[in-house]
UniProtKB/TrEMBL annotation:
Record family assignment: Belongs to the ANP32 family.
UniProt-listed SMART domains: LRRcap
InterPro entries linked: AN32, Leu-rich_rpt, LRR_dom_sf, U2A'_phosphoprotein32A_C
Keyword Repeat attributed: yes
Protein name as it appears in the record: Acidic leucine-rich nuclear phosphoprotein 32 family member A
GO molecular function annotations of the record: histone binding
Highest rank taxon of the organism: Eukaryota
Biased composition (Basic residues): 222-233
PROSITE patterns associated with the record: LRR
UniProt KW Repeat keyword: yes
GO annotation, cellular component aspect: nucleus
Amino acid sequence: MEKRIELEKRGKKPGDIKELVLDNCRSTQIVGLTNEFSALESLSLINVGLTSLKGFPKLSSLKKLELSDNRISGGLNLLDSSPKLTHLNLSGNKIKDLDTLQPLKEFKNLRSLDLFNNEVTNMDNYREKVFNLIPSLRYLDGFDADDCEVDSEGDDDEVNGNEDGEGGGNEDDSEEVVSDEEDDDFLDDEPGLESVYKKSLGTVTKKIIWGKKRKKMMTKIMKKMNRKKRKRSLLSEERKENLRMQGRT
């Protein structure tokens, strides 16, 4: 796990990382993840092989935690250092009873919990008991307390740990569309700018033409080399045949 963490850091400082994906890195417990990841908001540890949450660091900014397809059977109290947690996925683990879930009632911001494919889901009145245990919970296994499935974009964002319902979008990243008329006005505003634009366009065109010519030249060279190769092969076969004939005489 430590090597995978180092790889996923991609040269960034731990305190600057907001999302970390460590899926399938194989480890029975958490190793190498430290309190230095103070800005981490989303952590994914799917199918790692975890049997325990021992070593889980203090991640005060963490909102979304993916722990599905592991072998966790308890120790959820070790998550209490992440009070901002809104989304917790524990599907496909070894949680057997309601007592194991008791620590989660202390999470005042927990909105979505997934326990699908855990033995605890076979308990009588399972959904009612879990909703009563965790007052802040809005969605359990993708459904609300009235058994209505998440269907709207806003609800889906909340289930996925995005409280703002913006789907991770950023208005600053949107591409500005400029019309042809605005483009013409821009060229007219600055004297000589149009000529510079045309000159640059001409340079690009020349590069494209040269690229095509170069491609044709390379094709001709390859054909010529192939012809020579075939000729050498034929001469070699002819030479071998002559040697065989001489041997017979």
